[in-house]
Amino acid sequence: MTNQEIIERIDRSIAEEFEIDPEGMTPEKTLFQDLGLDSLDIVDLVIVLETAFRFKIREDEGIRKIRTLGDIHAFVLQKKNELESIPR
Amino acid sequence: MPLKRVVITGMGAISPFGRGVDTLMTALLSGESGVRILPELADIRGIRTRVAALVPGVDPGEIPRKYRRSMSAMSVFAALAAGDAIAQAGLSGEQVRGGRLGVSIGSTIGSPRTTQAFFDDFRTDNSVERMKSGLFFQIMNHSCAANVTHMFGVTGRTVAPAAACSTGSLAVGYGAETISMGKQDFMLCGGADEFHPLTAGTFDIMNAASTRFNESPEKTPRPFDRDRDGVVCAEGSGILLLESLDSALRRNAEILAEIVGFASTSDPESIANPNAANIAHCMRQALLDAGIGPAGIDYVNAHATGTELGDIAESEAIRSVFGDRVPASSLKGNLGHAMAASGALELAASVEMLRRGILLPTHNLDHVDPLCASVLHVREVTRRRVDTVMKNNFALGGVNSSLVIRRFRQ
């Protein structure tokens, strides 16, 4: 999966879960103010991402720093890279 | 402390006929049945009933996601019915949110569908990792009440009575008492339930669900009929906006009816089987509360679900309180038994009977059971002035409830 495909997958999953118009989902949009999410939605966002990418992120410190959609893109891309760099 | 008079100024109904009190009344007046064959019941081992009365054509999407995420079907029904009741009453946002409006809405249990979905997933790997944040708010016992509270911004008190088939009537009765004591000026009251095979199965294993009309669903349930064979489970919500008379007069609101009596009694004889003497006691207590004698009641809207024992017990009780003078009917022949919603849905229809000057008959009552014959049954739509109605509901668990409503007069 390319980085662009990962980003598209993130946006699609979030749009479906939170019923957001994909047209308005640009990276600078803040989750709370611009996209209208709240703290309960963040709980579900973690599950949505864990389900979509088959990783566990709930305990990850990086989650707490996310403010924008772009932050999610960067977080997921980094997480995917970390996991793929681990020798199996 | 003088008690305040309590009136009904708004009603909402989500029934097996769809949305709205007018929709409900049109169907009842034309003798329609909301009961249908439910094919998926055939896939459940051990269940013999194949029919149910489900709500058609309700769009949860009209509720914003922020509120809908914590709602199962029963809360969606309650929220839509509550919105319609508020709209009919013409309450302002300030009146709804200002602290003088409370909520008294119950269901039999929290959402059975969501509970099943959770355990289906949980048992795959003994994990809560996929549990969404809205799940608990759908399965907690006060889910409907809390969801209505949040959707409309209610800041008054929230209570969620739960007593199975008596829930709706109890919620109205307790709401009326709350206003009567001056604790709130407005109360959104009623009940809601969503269909699940758990409910149908509960009646089925007790041999109290209808099983002989699986190919002709419109012919069941058959309250008071000699060929009745049990309950048909339904779903929906009935919500009534109760208000102090003072407030309604101040607002110049249209008063649909006055609530003048309420009683709830417990029946420790059996947790499942009704008892005629205890039912009669409940009805007499409601008359006492209303300050009227049996001669003051023009019509009894019966609980009668179409079970063998329940219909006989209620018939005997009605006879012992009213003789054979007061006409009575059950609406469950049309609606099925919407459990926690039934009391409030049937009360809404009773209010309309009072307003329109009609009595609705018991659907499917073709041959009155001789053991139920002591009652003056309404057999066809009858035009007559109706000033006072007694509304009965009796629940598994031994919880009886009777309400008395009256045409409003100063």
Pair of chains with the largest interface and how many residues each contributes: A-B, 13 and 9 residues
Q: Count every beta strand of chain B, where a strand is a DSSP E run of 2 or more residues.
A: 16
Classify the secondary structure makeup of chain A into a structural class.
mainly alpha
Q: Tell me, what is the CATH class of the largest domain in chain B?
A: Alpha Beta
CATH architecture of chain A: Orthogonal Bundle
How far the N terminus sits from the C terminus of chain B, by CA atoms, comes to 20 Å
Q: What labels describe this entry?
A:
heterodimer, A: 88 residues, mainly alpha, Non-ribosomal Peptide Synthetase Peptidyl Carrier Protein, Chain A, B: 410 residues, alpha/beta, Peroxisomal Thiolase, Chain A, domain 1, 2 domains, twelve-stranded mixed sheet, two-stranded antiparallel sheet, 35% helix
Nutshell version of this structure?
The complex is a heterodimer of chains A (88) and B (410). Chain A contains 3 helices and no strands.
Description:
The complex is a heterodimer of chains A (88) and B (410). Chain A starts with a helix and ends with a helix. Chain A is globular and about 40 Å long. The model of chain A has no long low-confidence stretch (mean pLDDT 93). In chain A, helix 1 (3-18) crosses helix 2. Chain A has one domain (3-83): Non-ribosomal Peptide Synthetase Peptidyl Carrier Protein, Chain A. By secondary structure, chain A is an all-alpha fold. Chain A is built from 3 helices and no strands. Helix content of chain B is 35%, strand content 19%. The longest helix of chain B is centred in the first third of the chain and has 17 residues, at 73-89. The mean pLDDT of chain B is 97. Chain B has helices at residues 21-29, 65-68, 73-89, 93-97, 112-125, 135-139, 143-152, 167-180, 197-205, 245-251, 276-290, 308-322, 332-335, 342-356, and strands at residues 6-15, 18-19, 36-37, 51-52, 101-106, 158-159, 186-193, 236-244, 257-266, 299-301, 327-329, 358-359, 376-377, 382-383, 388-395, 399-406. In chain B, strands 1, 2, 5, 6, 7, 8, 9, 10, 11, 13, 15 and 16 form a 12-stranded mixed sheet that branches. In chain B, strand 15 and strand 16 form a beta hairpin. With 410 residues, chain B is an alpha/beta fold.
